[in-house]
């Protein structure tokens, strides 16, 4: 029988989780888990954020990797964690005093149901904000009507493409992208909705940071994503820390490939409420955090946005257990989890490089200077 994970990528959430747990056990990792209450996968199985830790009980340096923040993007992130860090043993090669913490499928619902968002249509990577005074993106209101069809209106890819191109030409590509993707907090049926309260995944990550990350002097954080930028390129996007040397440290670790949304050098425009900000918020104040998003490009931006709009319209019309089997999911998979073998091979090789850079960066940190 052919191994469905021969290229490192699982065919569904359940298979990805099983492979991760097997690899973690074989590596001797300390396991952990958080089950999503009130929901099950399309096959009735549990939906769980799983963790695996390798290293000393009290590490001085810690590499944290997260997959599946955006659900369906977990196919790629899970493969990078399971194949590269666990099965190939890179996590075990961390230096003295260094631990490796893997957070698998932070948004298990989105992973299982082939959605970028969670069970409440919340974009987990926009959810880490003050919900009492959310930083609403007013520009989104100008594009919402084009992105989300009116009640009862059939979804038309042709109509939507024409409207989106008209908006992009009128606003300019960068302004349009930021209006759509920055994060919005008023329209729960819309795209990139940050929610009106902390999501379940939000609470899980906060707990993991408090229990496993806070207090470690040197922390490298890598959140794995797909959908933006040059195909399979693996762009490291700077996301923090907050000490004065964080940006220079990240540049030293990841080299000239490092980009920054705020400087306009990234495929990503500035976003609010991302997971790296949650990690920074959860620290005690004297740790050094070097955080990036590792972003693997797939399709051109307009095609990715079209796939997101089609998926959003699908879930507004159908229950999740029917929508997960709909034809529209094929476009979403190509936008966030391509089956192209060359793409997958390139992704895993780039993940090896970046994880190695992170571990080498941690090794270079001077613990005596603290």
SSE order and pairing:
Layout (H helix, E strand, L loop, with lengths): L12 H14 L3 E11 L5 E9 L6 E6 L7 H14 L10 E7 L3 H5 L31 H4 L9 H15 L1 H9 L18 H14 L4 E14 L3 E6 L5 H9 L20 H8 L5 E10 L3 H17 L2 H4 L4 H9 L4 H24 L6
Parallel strand pairs: 3-4, 3-5, 5-7
Antiparallel strand pairs: 1-2, 2-4, 6-7
Helix pairs in contact: 1-2, 2-13, 5-6, 7-9, 8-13, 10-12
If you had to describe this structure to a student in words, what would you say it looks like?
The protein has 370 residues and is of the alpha/beta class. It has a single domain (13-128, 193-302, 331-364), classed as Zn peptidases (Aminopeptidase). Helices cover 39% and strands 17% of the residues. The protein contains 13 helices and 7 strands. It has a 7-stranded mixed beta sheet, sandwiched between helices. β1 and β2 (46-54) form a beta hairpin. α1 packs parallel to α2 (74-87) and α8 (246-254) crosses α13. The model has no long low-confidence stretch (mean pLDDT 94).
């Amino acid at each position: 029988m052919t191994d469905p994970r021969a290229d490192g990528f699982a065919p569904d959430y359940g298979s990805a989780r099983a492979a991760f747990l097997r690899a973690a056990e074989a590596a001797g990792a300390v396991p952990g888990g958080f089950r999503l209450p009130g929901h099950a996968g399309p096959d009735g199985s549990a939906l769980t954020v799983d963790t695996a830790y390798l290293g000393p009980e009290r590490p001085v340096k810690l590499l944290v990797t997260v997959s599946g923040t955006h659900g369906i993007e977990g196919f790629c992130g899970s493969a990078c964690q399971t194949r590269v860090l666990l099965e190939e043993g890179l996590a075990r090669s961390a230096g003295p005093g260094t631990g490796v913490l893997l957070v698998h499928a932070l948004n298990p619902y989105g992973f299982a149901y082939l959605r970028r968002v969670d069970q409440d249509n919340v974009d987990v990577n926009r959810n880490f904000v003050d919900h009492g005074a959310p930083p609403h993106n007013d520009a989104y209101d100008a594009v919402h009507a084009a992105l989300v069809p009116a009640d009862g209106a059939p979804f038309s890819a042709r109509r939507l493409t024409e409207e989106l191109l008209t908006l992009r030409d009128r606003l300019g590509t960068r302004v349009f992208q930021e209006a759509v993707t920055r994060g919005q907090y008023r329209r729960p049926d819309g795209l990139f909705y940050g929610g009106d309260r902390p999501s379940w995944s939000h609470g899980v990550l906060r707990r993991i940071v408090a229990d496993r990350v806070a207090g470690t002097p040197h922390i490298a954080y890598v959140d794995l994503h797909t959908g933006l930028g040059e195909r399979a390129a693996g762009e490291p996007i700077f996301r923090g820390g907050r000490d004065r040397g964080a940006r220079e440290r990240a540049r030293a670790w990841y080299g000239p490939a490092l980009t920054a949304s705020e400087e306009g050098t990234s495929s990503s425009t500035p976003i609010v409420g991302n997971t790296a900000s949650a990690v920074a918020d959860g620290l005690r104040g004297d740790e050094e955090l070097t955080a990036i998003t590792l972003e693997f490009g797939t399709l051109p931006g307009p095609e990715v946005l079209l796939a997101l709009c089609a998926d959003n319209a699908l879930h507004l019309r159908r229950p999740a257990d029917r929508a997960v089997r709909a034809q529209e999911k094929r476009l979403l998979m190509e936008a966030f989890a391509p089956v192209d073998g060359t793409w997958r091979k390139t992704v895993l090789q780039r993940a090896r490089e970046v994880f190695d850079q992170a571990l080498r960066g941690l090794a270079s940190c001077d613990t005596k200077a603290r």
